[in-house]
């Protein structure tokens, strides 16, 4: 059996474990541009978490990751649950809708980001054009340039892109529920809300565990949509900054504004990795406990 | 990310091995650049060089500008990378030169350095050892590009003073023409706008005072100039806070806006996209008549030699070729970018204008002086001007924020 086990282990070690460990090691050194300088212990970590220069940027970005997590939990996973329930009831044309809701998931994030950037263009994008043609001129905005709407726009674009995934997972979960349980509940005269809350929701708990954990990891690793739509700086003035962007700028530099610092970038990556591992594990354990076997 | 890095290192290693085998017959140099748009020009240059040096071939490879620094850094850190490297200047150069990845150039190994003015060499000099590490390739300027046809149709002339500028923008707007195509959604655009519109109001003396620490960024000259910029912001493209760099370029290229505050490098690009455009350039307007009109200039980067290359002689020959007036002439005339090489005959009328304006210039301040440490002056200027133009802070607040950031490491401000 060794021929089945060794290649994947070697692959994982080389491309996953080794880079993570080396990033961890980089974080303890001072970097002169690209050359590793002397060992500085926890200095980079201290700088990232508490330094005058880095800390405000890092915590600002962290807060945005938290917003994204909460908002996506409601819109993306909540929306997915509702869509799944609607599809579960097999309304007219549900096969079409099932595919339609999943199509954006298979598009590349670069394309989705670019598409939404066009939609949201303040002067010729279809969002504002639609508002103008409905006479709602006062609602038209420079969505990605307005600090009060930019982050929300990114979150919506992300939800549009991925909502098909929770929909499909929940739908599969719902289809696993033995029909007689739902029949019995209906016969007992439960209304739709009670049915969802007391029967369906607890019984799709395994799907919830997977979806919440994946979303947690995704929200804290969020990078592509912000990078494509608002650029490396978290424009406008840091209101869409997330940890992924801060990491990239710090480690690799932003050619139009900043310099490279591998040490601090690695420290940030390490902290982010530890944070995600610890909290994702806790979340999974907690969510597992509420799963019911049937 | 990590995975990409591994793959890149692998790719770099692969090309290194390949170039090694090719060297048996001839010396093959690899030459990396981010200037994808100039590929045809460089192929032509290489052909000319090979006619002179038949024993050497040069392989030109380009990478996307936004990833170039990352790819180059990783290749160099892995002990590989190309033989000849197009590098950027100032802080970006230091990142690569400090760890010793670049070969120091001097009048012995590259006598052609004598063809360059001091300021150009300074841009490619490492501050810690005062050695030059690259042959400069271009000087860029921040100024105002304008559409001559729109100006003529509306009977207006390039403004000299700020009051004329305000009157001009009002007149254009009254006729439903967007005065400035600029938007502020792309952060770095805010820095080019400051360079293009405010240089004359800041003045060379302001730069000297900042460098010596006699003044800092809360200086009335800086705050006053920012206030003027805030005034004129209303004449940028509609919904300018959401207009990104490509959208603002399109607006100008389509002839729907009269002016574009930006870099001299835009001119050739605009002309390529719409050859019918009749363009002109003018410097930032002065506060009161009689003041000196200035543009903001910087050196874009240079050609460096990999310190670890085994083909040092061939690489130096190529770099010396890129430092000759013949090369500078063809660079300027083909790409319509200013070569820093002295006494070059320029054919293109707009490039001649830029060259003339460049005789009177201040530095593109944050890039030239404050991009060596974090938070860089550019990061601070870009985000705070963006915030100010969005109406979220006053010019005083913007200036104070910029000053506070730079003062965390800039000794002259800490007194």
Lay out the secondary structure.
The complex is a heterodimer of chains A (294) and B (415).
Chain A: H1 2-26, E1 29-32, E2 35-39, H2 43-50, H3 54-88, H4 94-106, H5 109-119, H6 126-133, H7 150-162, H8 164-176, H9 179-187, H10 192-203, H11 205-220, H12 224-230, H13 243-252, H14 262-289
Helix pairs in contact in A: 1-14, 2-3, 2-14, 3-7, 3-8, 3-11, 4-8, 5-12, 7-12, 8-11, 11-14, 13-14
Chain B: H1 2-22, E1 27-33, H2 39-52, E2 56-62, H3 65-77, E3 84-88, H4 90-97, H5 118-123, E4 135-147, H6 148-153, H7 162-174, E5 178-180, H8 187-212, H9 220-232, H10 245-253, E6 257-263, H11 266-273, E7 279-282, E8 295-305, H12 312-321, H13 325-335, H14 349-358, E9 361-363, H15 365-369, H16 377-389, H17 395-407
Parallel strand pairs in B: 1-2, 1-3, 5-6, 8-9
Antiparallel strand pairs in B: 3-8, 4-6, 4-7, 4-8
Helix pairs in contact in B: 8-9, 8-16, 9-17, 16-17
Give a quick set of tags describing it.
heterodimer, A: mainly alpha, 14 helices, globular, B: alpha/beta, nine-stranded mixed β-sheet, 48% helix
Description:
The complex is a heterodimer of chains A (294) and B (415). Helix content of chain A is 71%, strand content 3%. Chain A is mostly helical. In chain A, a hairpin with a 2-residue loop joins strand 1 and strand 2 (35-39). In chain A, helix 1 (2-26) packs across helix 14, helix 2 crosses helix 3 and helix 13 (243-252) packs antiparallel against helix 14 (262-289). The longest helix of chain A is centred in the N-terminal third of the chain and has 35 residues, at 54-88. Chain A starts with a helix and ends in a 5-residue tail after the last helix. The model of chain B has no long low-confidence stretch (mean pLDDT 91). In chain B, strands 1, 2, 3, 4, 5, 6, 7, 8 and 9 form a nine-stranded mixed beta sheet that branches. Chain B is globular. The longest helix of chain B is centred in the middle third of the chain and has 26 residues, at 187-212. Chain B has 17 helices and nine strands. Chain B has helices at 2-22, 39-52, 65-77, 90-97, 118-123, 148-153, 162-174, 187-212, 220-232, 245-253, 266-273, 312-321, 325-335, 349-358, 365-369, 377-389, 395-407; strands at 27-33, 56-62, 84-88, 135-147, 178-180, 257-263, 279-282, 295-305, 361-363. The chains are: A mainly alpha (294), B alpha/beta (415).
């Amino acid at each position: 059996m060794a021929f089945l086990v060794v290649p994947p282990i070697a692959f994982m070690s080389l491309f996953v474990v080794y880079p993570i460990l080396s990033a961890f090691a980089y974080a303890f050194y001072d970097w002169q541009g690209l050359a590793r300088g002397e060992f500085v212990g926890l200095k980079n970590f201290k700088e990232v978490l508490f330094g005058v220069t880095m800390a405000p940027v890092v915590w600002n970005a962290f807060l945005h990751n938290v917003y994204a997590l909460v908002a996506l939990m409601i819109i993306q996973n909540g929306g997915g649950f509702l869509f799944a329930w609607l599809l579960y009831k097999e309304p007219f044309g549900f096969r079409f809708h099932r595919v339609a809701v999943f199509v954006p998931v298979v598009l590349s994030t670069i394309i989705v980001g670019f598409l939404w950037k066009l939609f949201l263009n303040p002067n010729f994008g279809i969002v504002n054009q639609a508002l103008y043609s409905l006479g709602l001129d006062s609602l038209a905005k420079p969505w990605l340039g307005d600090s009060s709407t930019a982050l929300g726009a990114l979150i919506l674009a992300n939800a549009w892109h991925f909502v098909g995934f929770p929909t499909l997972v929940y739908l599969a979960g719902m289809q696993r529920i033995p029909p007689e349980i739902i029949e019995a509940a209906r016969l007992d005269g439960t209304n739709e809300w009670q049915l969802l809350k007391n029967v369906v929701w607890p019984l799709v708990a395994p799907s919830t565990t997977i979806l919440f954990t994946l979303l947690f990891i995704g929200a804290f690793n969020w990078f592509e949509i912000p990078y494509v739509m608002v650029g490396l700086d978290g424009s406008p003035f840091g209101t869409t900054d997330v940890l992924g962007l801060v990491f990239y700028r710090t480690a690799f530099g932003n050619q139009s504004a900043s310099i490279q610092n591998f040490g601090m970038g690695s420290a940030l990556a390490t902290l982010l990795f530890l944070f995600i591992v610890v909290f994702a594990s806790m979340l999974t354990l907690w969510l597992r406990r509420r799963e019911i076997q049937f | 990310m990590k995975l990409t890095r591994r793959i890149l290192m692998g790719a770099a290693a692969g090309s290194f091995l390949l170039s090694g085998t090719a060297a048996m017959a001839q010396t093959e140099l690899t030459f990396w650049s981010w200037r994808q748009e100039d590929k045809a020009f460089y192929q032509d240059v290489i052909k000319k060089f090979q006619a002179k040096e038949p024993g050497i071939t040069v392989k030109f490879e380009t990478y996307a500008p936004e990833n170039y620094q990352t790819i180059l850094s990783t290749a160099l850190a892995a002990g590989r990378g190309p033989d000849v490297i197009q590098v950027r200047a100032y802080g970006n150069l230091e990142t690569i030169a400090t760890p010793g990845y670049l070969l120091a150039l001097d009048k012995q190994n590259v006598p052609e350095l004598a063809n360059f003015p001091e300021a150009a060499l300074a841009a490619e000099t490492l501050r810690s050892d005062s050695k030059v590490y690259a042959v400069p390739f271009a000087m860029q300027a921040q100024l105002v590009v304008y559409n001559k046809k729109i100006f003529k149709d509306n009977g207006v002339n390039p403004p000299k003073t700020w009051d004329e500028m305000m009157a001009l923008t009002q007149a254009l707007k009254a006729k439903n023409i967007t005065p400035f195509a600029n938007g502020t959604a792309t952060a770095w655009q805010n820095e080019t706008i400051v360079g293009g519109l405010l240089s004359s109001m800041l003045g060379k003396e302001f730069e000297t005072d900042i460098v010596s620490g006699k003044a800092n960024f809360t200086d009335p000259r800086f705050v006053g100039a920012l206030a003027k910029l805030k005034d004129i912001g209303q004449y940028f493209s509609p919904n300018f806070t959401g207009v990104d760099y490509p959208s603002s370029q399109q607006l100008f290229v389509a002839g729907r806006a009269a002016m574009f505050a930006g870099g001299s490098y835009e001119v050739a690009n605009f002309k390529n996209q719409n050859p019918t455009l009749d363009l002109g350039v003018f410097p930032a307007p002065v506060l009161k008549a009689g003041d000196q009109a200035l543009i903001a200039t910087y050196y874009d980067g240079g050609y460096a030699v990999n310190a670890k290359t085994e083909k040092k002689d061939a690489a130096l020959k190529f770099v010396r070729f890129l430092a000759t007036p013949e090369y500078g002439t063809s660079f300027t005339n083909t790409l319509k970018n200013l070569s820093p090489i002295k006494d070059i005959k320029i054919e293109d009328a707009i490039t001649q204008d830029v060259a003339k304006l460049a005789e009177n210039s201040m530095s593109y301040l944050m890039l030239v002086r404050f991009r060596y440490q974090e938070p860089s002056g550019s990061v601070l200027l870009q985000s705070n001007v963006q915030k100010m133009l969005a109406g979220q802070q006053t010019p005083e607040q913007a200036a104070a924020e910029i000053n506070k950031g730079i003062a965390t490491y800039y000794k002259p401000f800490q007194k």
